Amino acid sequence: MHKVAPCQCSWISTNLHPDRARRGNTVNTNDHNNPRLMRLTEVMSMVALRRSSLYGLIGKGPFPAPRKIGRASVWSSAEVQQWIEDILQVKEASDQQCAPEEKGRIDQVLPEG
Q1: CB-count burial class (<10 Å; 0-12, 13-18, 19+) for 76
Q2: Structure confidence at residue 30 (pLDDT)
Q3: Would you tell me how many other CB atoms lie within 10 Å of the CB of residue 72?
Q4: For residues 12 and 18, what is the distance between their CA atoms, to the nearest angstrom?
Q5: Residues 47 and 54: beta-carbon distance below 8 Å
Q6: Counting runs of H as helices and runs of E as strands, what totals does the chain give?
Q7: What are φ and ψ of residue 18, in 5° steps?
Q8: C-alpha span between 57 and 106 (Å, rounded)
Q9: What pLDDT shows up at residue 26?
Q10: How far apart are CA 18 and CA 30, in angstroms?
Q11: Which long-range contacts (CB under 8 A, 24 or more apart) does 59-68 make?
Q12: What is the rounded CA–CA span in Å between residue 64 and residue 75?
């Protein structure tokens, strides 16, 4: 009987396989040192916005636009993470100036369109 050699691809991390995110494996999207490309479903999950809201923000300018690879639209994880950090910083500064009942509202931070 032949012995089967262990898989030689065990060094491949989940960051190199975005498809694994769809299968339930977690992917570290906060790693600025290892940026990667993400598809729409993963971006929507990361920023907690629906497709229409996301494309609305892209049209207004504050959200990074996707890049095309063939027919696929992809986003840089580093750019999306930077947008999240920028929103949180602006929101924190805004919360310090808002009335108590308006604190924590993200629509106070996003530009009007």
Answers
A1: middle
A2: 53
A3: 11
A4: 12
A5: yes
A6: 4, 3
A7: -60, -25
A8: 13
A9: 46
A10: 14
A11: 59/113, 60/111, 60/113, 61/111, 62/110, 62/111, 66/40, 67/37
A12: 8
Q: Which two tokens stand for residue 71?
A: 């027919």
> What pLDDT score was predicted for residue 33?
72
pLDDT at residue 47, rounded to an integer: 95
Q: What does the pLDDT profile of the chain (113 residues) look like in tens digits?
A: 555 444 444 333 344 444 444 444 445 545 567 889 999 999 999 999 999 999 999 999 899 999 999 999 999 999 999 999 999 988 777 777 766 666 555 565 565 55
Query: Which single residue is written with the structure tokens 């691809």?
Result: 9
| Type of residue numbered 10 | S
In sequence order, the 6+-apart residues with CB closer than 8 A to the CB of 111 are 60, 61, 62
